[in-house]
Write a structure and sequence with these properties.
Elements (H helix, E strand, L loop, with lengths): L4 E6 L4 H10 L5 E7 L8 H4 L13 E2 L8 E4 L3 H13 L3 E4 L11 H5 L14 E2 L2 H9 L3 E3 L3 H16 L6 E7 L14 H4 L4 E2 L7 H13 L5 E7 L6 E8 L5 H8 L6 E3 L15 E8 L4 E8 L7 H12 L15
Parallel strand pairs: 1-2, 1-4, 2-3, 4-5, 5-7, 6-7, 8-10, 12-13
Antiparallel strand pairs: 8-11, 9-10, 11-14, 13-14
Helix pairs in contact: 1-10, 5-10, 6-8
Length: 340
Amino acid sequence: MEQEIKVCVYGATGYTGVELLRILLEHPYAKIVSLTSQSYAGKRLSEVFPSFLPTPLGSMFLTAEPEEDFDIAFLCLPHETSLELVPELLKRGKRVIDLSGAYRIGDKSKYPEYYGFEHTHPELLDKAVYGLPELFREHIKTAQLVANPGCYPTATLLALYPILREGIELDFVIVDALSGVSGAGRKTSQKFHYPEMEGNAFAYSVEKHRHTPEMEYVIQRVYGKDIKLRFTPQVIPAVRGMMAKVYTRCEELDFVSLYKETYEGEPFVFISQEPPHLKHVVGTNFCLLYLHYHRETSILEVISVIDNLSKGASSQAVQNFNIMMGFGEGLALKRLATFP
């Protein structure tokens, strides 16, 4: 019989926290012992989210700090909060999966420019393992700290990985990406409110987005040299789901065979025969990829579709949890999309 793992979820009432709880409820070896929330401390989880009433978690109290000991922590917290909490947890011997961006980039100089703070624990950046299983599975197995990837980087890097690994000469990389509104989080701004978002779509952070150095850092690790990205994120009037359209100029190859060979045996990445829809992946840990090579311009287009809250955050965190603990990678993750 597998060992029961005691879990603490920090920031349990944000979108990624709630999605994480929904998945962990189905995990046979994860025992959730603590749920933290600064906004709702003292309330039962079901008072904040009545959907948990039929579950064992519904009667649990949200607390400002964990009140029971645990083996592993999931951090669904703001970047600055995770930055200071991670060292404390590691000193106490806890394993950590951090869903914030506090430890994703190995270069500390990027944080003031892209995150607005100096990185106060640069000694941990080399110890943090980037939690994209399809690229770094072996490192994740023994990691004490996993930096769970951002949603845009997950979709983009899975679209690029086969050609990066192959070492194909690339002329440029352009990422044109769409995300559901949930990517903005629960505490959001006026432009994301329903009357303004319904029937609307817009680009944001066009000049500079914090996911750009994250993607460039991982590309350099895999590809062995720097590639500059032109990344434009856009929000669309959907609750969840993400589509990254990735363009690069390169020589023509049998790209379908290359991608199928690269992802053969991967439980959550699949090559689609037609452009995938957001509805094909919502609520799942799947990534669907579609490839088209345009001979007239020598441009390869890869369309990558994920759920921004799942494979882009919480279900990928559970995938990392399974790898770290030596469980079957698909535990609690073998669900199909909610359709329609």
